[in-house]
Structures are given as structure tokens and as C-alpha cells.
Amino acid sequence: MSLARAWRAAAAVLAAAVLGGCATAPDTEPLLRLPPAALGGSLNQQQQITVEVEGREPQRMEVLLEADAQAVRVALLALGRTVARLDWDGRELRQERAAWWPAQVAGERVLSELQLALWPVPALRAALPPGWTLQEEAPGLRRLCRSGEPVIEVRRQDAHRLALVHLRAGYRLLIESQDLQEATP
């Protein structure tokens, strides 16, 4: 298999996993667009994300994340290449993507799930549309529900690992983060 075909195959699996049901995303869950300042601090992380979809081999990608009061910047890397860049300033989401990266992997979904996993619960609750709730059932467990039915669970496993499980779309993201400020000597 050529390298280009391998990239396209990996991208297709990631697209299916990360956005399985992207065409129905507005009915599946709200797309969060919280202002960067709602984070209440800053992040500078390198993340390894493992995407698991039943019946498929797990796929890995890297994410570089910077967030502060002015902007959220994300770079997605697959197979060692930058496949997408996102820049959210609270008003406009700018996206750049590799020509071969599937259009289904929408920056809006990446931003929304990132915010669901990392932004403070009070800010998330204030941004949810009617019929949606965010529950904190235990330390490190968030559950996004529609009319009381769980749609997404975010489980913090420790200070550097969390799992985001999309119960309706049938995928799981295992996210391992390294704070880049801590990593520098």
C-alpha cells in the first residue's frame, strides 16, 4: 500500500471514529462554542489520542493544544504529518486541513469535544441548550445528557489521562496529555 493510500485509510478510520454520525451531529449533541476565557486559565499540552471503534483497529493521533483567554489553537497530526489546524478566538473558528483529510472530521466537533472534556462544568452548563444537562456524578466523571439520557461520558482516569465515550455514536477517545510547561527543564 502506498504511503498516500495509508494516510487516506487512517484518516477515513479516524473520521468514522471521531465523527461517527457527523451528518446527524446537531441531533446527537450540541456543538459547544465557549469563549476561550471561559477556561479560566491556560493550557499548553501535547496529547496522544487513541480512537477506538468496535470492530476496528485502534487508531492514534497526536494533538498539540494551546489555550488561553484570547484563543484556542489546535494542531492535529496523523502519521507524523499535520492534517489540520484550528484557531478559535471566541468569534470565528478558522481551519486549515490537508487536502486528503476527510471533510467529515469537522473542526467544530473537535473544538466541542475538547471543551466538553476540559472546560469548567459551570461554563459548560451555561452554554447548553434546553433539554441538555451536564452531570458530575463523581470526581472525574462528567455525563452529557439529553432529556436525562446519557449521550457522552468523560472519565478522568488520572491527572494525565481521560476517556471520552460517545455512547450514541459508538466511539471512545482515550486522551493522554503531557503539560508542555512541566516538560521543559
Provide a descriptive summary of the structure in words.
There is one protein chain. The chain has 5 helices and 10 strands; from the N terminus they run ααβββββααβββββα. A hairpin with a 2-residue loop joins strand 8 and strand 9. The chain is 23% helix and 42% strand. It has 185 residues and is of the alpha+beta class. The protein is globular and about 40 Å long. A 10-stranded antiparallel beta sheet has the order 5-4-3-2-1-10-9-8-7-6. The N terminus is likely disordered. The longest helix has 16 residues. The chain has one domain: outer membrane lipoprotein receptor (LolB), chain A (Clam), CATH 2.50.20. Pfam families: DUF3261 (PF11659). Keywords: Signal. InterPro entries: DUF3261 (IPR021675).
